[in-house]
Amino acid sequence: MYRAIAKKFFPSITGAGIAALVMCLATSVGAQAPAQSPQQGTAGNPAAQQQQGQPQQSGQPQQSGQQQQQQQGQAPSSENNGVFVFRKQVEEVQLHATVLDDKHRMVTDLARQDFAVYENGQAQQITSFDRRDIPVSIGIIVDNSGSMRDKRPAVNQAALNFVRASRPDDEVFIVNFNDEYYLDQDFTADLGKLKEGMEKIDSRGGTALYDAVVASADHLEKNAKLDKKVLLVVTDGEDNASRESLEQAIRRLQKENGPTVYSIGILGEERQKRARRALAALAENTGGISYFPKDLSEVDSITREVAHDIRNQYIIGYKPATGKQDTGYRTVRVEAKAPGHGKLMVRTRTGYYSGQERAAAAGGQ
Hints:
This protein has 365 residues and is α/β, with parallel strands linked by helices. The chain has two domains: 92-132 and 314-365, no CATH class; 137-311, Rossmann fold (3-Layer(aba) Sandwich). Helices cover 30% and strands 21% of the residues. The chain has ten helices and 14 strands. The protein has helices spanning 2-9, 16-32, 65-71, 152-164, 191-198, 209-223, 246-253, 272-284, 299-311, 355-363; strands at 93-100, 115-119, 122-124, 126-130, 137-143, 171-177, 181-188, 229-235, 260-265, 290-291, 314-318, 329-336, 345-347, 351-353. The strands form three sheets. Strands 7-6-5-8-9-10 form a six-stranded mixed beta sheet, with helices on both faces. A four-stranded antiparallel beta sheet has the order 4-11-1-13, with no helix packed on it. A four-stranded antiparallel beta sheet has the order 3-2-12-14. Helix 4 (152-164) runs antiparallel to helix 5 (191-198), helix 4 packs parallel to helix 9 and helix 6 packs parallel to helix 7. The chain is globular, with a radius of gyration of 28 Å. The termini are far apart.
């Protein structure tokens, strides 16, 4: 093509002259062609994300490479840039289970074949199993109502000791609540930042516990980077200011692969019955534990016990035999039997609302 152009516009040039001119034309055109630039990242600017006030309620985060791999059905992987990650399979329900013997001692040496999983009473095939300590996404939710004013210093110290007893690669956020709820520190592993978030004390107003729990569960679902999720709740009274009910809060927590809740109730006699029932329900339906210390000084040892429980759980995955076509609530039961052990008790979530049920509900809004 370039030789034809040279002959048309420069007919008197022949031989080596044409070759040189062709070379000049080709070089000139190539220099004008735009180079292909590297693909730009799609992650948002962290500085533009909400750092204070209510946990984010809307908008979907950009998908990470890990999330995209999960959607494409990749098998569990033990490492990601040197950090252990347990990836759940597509359509897999993932359970975090604690096993205790008849003396309430933790049992941590069981194998896959020692477990049986039932959904809606039907036996399920276990598709993934692990008992290693993996990183966790954690939300610490602390009552900041007027009655907590004198209790907050001890509670704050206990919460920080809970973080110290956790893995350095856990990610933690802080929500303080009274009759409103405030994300006073977003996900971080920085103990100094978490301490600052805990110290944002403005103890006044009522107790919107259920609203704070629902908002924190939403924040975990939309923004957590890790599969395993936990909420630690500390309060000294019953809810008296939420728009959400206890039943609505439990339903939200029972979304598929939702968080495990550990609750600590520093309760007085006058509000003990209803508050105990609510805190126990939040924990037991999600596979967690509720604690009711008789004295404020016990809170520190309780938070360390919670950290120990989180670090010694089995991860059991299964794909429901009925698939995800059946909508609605599904009960879950896990049993464990092993030679050399007596009667074993497995603590995990009592059930979940399937992903298809959530999608149908969203479509109807």
